[in-house]
Amino acid sequence: MNLSIETRQIDQIIVMDLAGRVSLFEQTLRQQAREMIEDGFVHFVVSLANVSYLDNSGLGQLCWIYTVAHNRGGDMVLLRPTERIKKLLNITKLDTVFHCFEHEFEAIAFLQKSQTKDLSMSANGY
Fold first, then answer.
1. What is the average pLDDT score of the chain?
2. Among 76, 108, 117, residue whose Cα is nearest residue 11
3. So where are the chain's domains?
4. What is the value of pTM for the model shown?
């Protein structure tokens, strides 16, 4: 099954619902994220509940989104990673980098709090 991505916006947060395979042969995730970042979005929730396969290239795409978002003052969190993906994140130690949530409202609240903190820091000259 090829990768399909449904994208929606909640405030200034982009929610990307992935389904299928995230692999070397599917660069759609990175391409869509790049377009969103170029449009000024830097806060992402990536839902992995319906991802059937994730290889090292797929992990690389997630790392790319996370890094670019962070470099621009944003963040990326993962939503409902499967047990297999949780094991992969643990093996690669990326579970210490990515915040993972089981409920979308928790992920959104985390990013909204992050946005508020970023705004107050910039208002104080930090």
1. 92
2. 108
3. 4-123
4. 0.90
